[in-house]
Design brief:
By secondary structure, this protein is mainly β. The chain is 4% helix and 49% strand.
Amino acid sequence: MSTDAGIENRRPHTMPAFLIWTSTMKHSNCIWLMVLTLLMPLQSLAASQWAKEAEVVAGGQVVADEDASNAQAVTRADAGIYTWWTLNAAELSHGRYAIYVRARSLDGQARSFSESVKIDGQLVDTLSATVDHRAYRWYRLGFFDFANGQTLLLADWSSPSLQVDKLIIEPIVSAAGADIAGGNLVADSGASTGQAIVRQTAGPYTWYVHSVSPPHGNYSVYVRARALGAATTFTQHVVVNGKTVAVKATEIGDSNYRWVRAADFEYTGSNLRLSDYSSPGLAVDRVALVQSKPKDETLSLYHLWYGNAHLAGIHTQQAEAVAGGSVFDDELADDARAVSRDSVGIYTYWTPAASQLVVGQSYTVDVRARSLDGGTHSFGMVARSNGNVLAEKSSAIGSSVYGWYKALNSFVYDGGALTLGDWSDPGLAIDSIRLTRTAVETSGDGYRRIGFFAQGNPSAPGITETAARVSIVPVNAQTTYAYFRDNGSTDRYKVMVGTSTDAGLNFEVRAQPVIDTSTTLNVPGYGVMDNAYDPSVIRTSDGYQMVFEASGPQQRVSSLLAHSADGLNGWDVRGPLVKSAQSNGSASTPNLIRRADSGELYLQWVNVHEFSLLTSRHQASLSYLTTWNPGAVWPQPAAVFTDTDFGQLPQAAAGSWDDKNFGSGSVLFEDGIYYMAYEGANHPFCEGNWGIGMARNSEATLADPGAWEKSSLNPWLKAINSGTCWISYPHLSKLNGRYYLYYQHPEIEWTPTGQINDIYRRRISVESE
């Protein structure tokens, strides 16, 4: 049985495997020289994919489910079939495939999902996984061979109380041991090619190198092998950019060939080598490299983290892929390789595909670079279209830490053959370059400005100034709520709500505020509140929960909690969650996180420390915040923020783009990981250079503020100019199975008379390979 149940995506440990190899194999140099001449690259995973929504091939009951990829899933009250899918040889070519299912357990209890693989009516395999999470996850069921036959049937007979969303089949390209030999090639009728690799002494059976870097992400290595006698051990080594990232020993005792899972690892490099140093007594047939998760829109945040997805209108290219200089290994680069020069000349020369460009649209170009010696060096870039110069700029780069620099200011693409090249000083390391469309779309689902119109009057503005921070809450497939601030004519900020029926693009703003400060409010545990703004709202089993920033004549900036049964009416301000007791502190721009497994709520907030000139981010559970004063009966007295370091998330290293400001953000859960979009800057207040970055935390460590990890690809977006918070208030949202980033950007299409509507969104799209 080929099964792959209960896959765990984890960061592998690192062991100095090649130190062992060096001491053990000095006598085998001649063998290694022969092996190196036989290196055969394993092909990149094929891009072709077959996907089906479960309700299209339903064997159970179709139900509405807003968390499903198209708001529908399949469920059963008893054991039976959820999905039934038939393909023929004209649709699915012969080969080896991995199959994935997206499912969840309705009660969180472990449930079995077992897929039967039938070829021309004959059962050839049964693949299974244990589904044990209330939230949707992708499970890799295992592999099957469609090597002959005319029809393939995939059907399951599975436990009750699941909801099944989607199935995906992806081809696996594996390498035969005969082609990547480190041992002796022998005839073996049980091997897939009639030949296998054996050894009489400890040593390598297989050794192969990727000539083309696979997409970044989580992978497993599988080996098809058998024992020639007694059980023995196969030990797999995974080497990325010359460093061992995973080592795993697997006992093989079966005399018949079977696939064994030889290693799991996270890949973020530019060079991959898979090899082993194993005990004698095995016959090794094939090796396969398989992604743990498929390419799918329901994994947009996962793929964005690894650079396999993008924000609409933004295209990034590794410098070594468009190199005009020398490529070298650099651990500080996001894929451990960069481009350098020891004389004046070209580092990068990029011709973006016409499909990435829109005629008449404006663009900017950024470069991620650092100084190799800490001295200041000039990077000069030019954009040409059919020989005409569209833009050129020289940037001074002096930091030894990688950062994004504005390589070209805005230019308009004229439809010609665009090239981006430079002529620059030596002494730099160039990691990647990024092309960003800065003109919004007027249609489509990419880069759009969000609209706010008056209640009952689509032609009239619905806001009197910028909405600033916007919290987007999907209600159902047809309706979306947006919560934001406005001051109307009273010069007091109030929290407003708008409703959208066009998938979160345009919102009808209700006339009545949901948190109304037109008259002074006396909040239990807080006192007088006359400003309410910058909300974060989530929907829970008992209604809608809101946290927002508030202030009053005698009160410092604090984070308050409110509740409503329907999200529109009857909002009850329950009291402060965090209120700073420090004259130099704050508790601002709060956001709520809901644990996917238990529903427990966490609060994140920002502390602006006026004396240390640092803006930091903090986190604690609501259950703790409402009881952290000894003897407190919340909301009286208030939960006072007495320790400005409490629950602090890791601050970036000095010299980073966000070292002084880990600011406002939002968190979205996807497939076992919590992803955060946040604003960052090199200044604690509304000065310096601002951008939007990404961080993540696993389901198991959400309660630990120190476990948040920032992406090496940060920032996603960076303001064109410096000196103010041009880009801020990011909000991640999932609407009808699609992922979006909402944010404030007053610089885009800004006019001297001011722009009251400066909220935009970009879609997060998984790239096709």
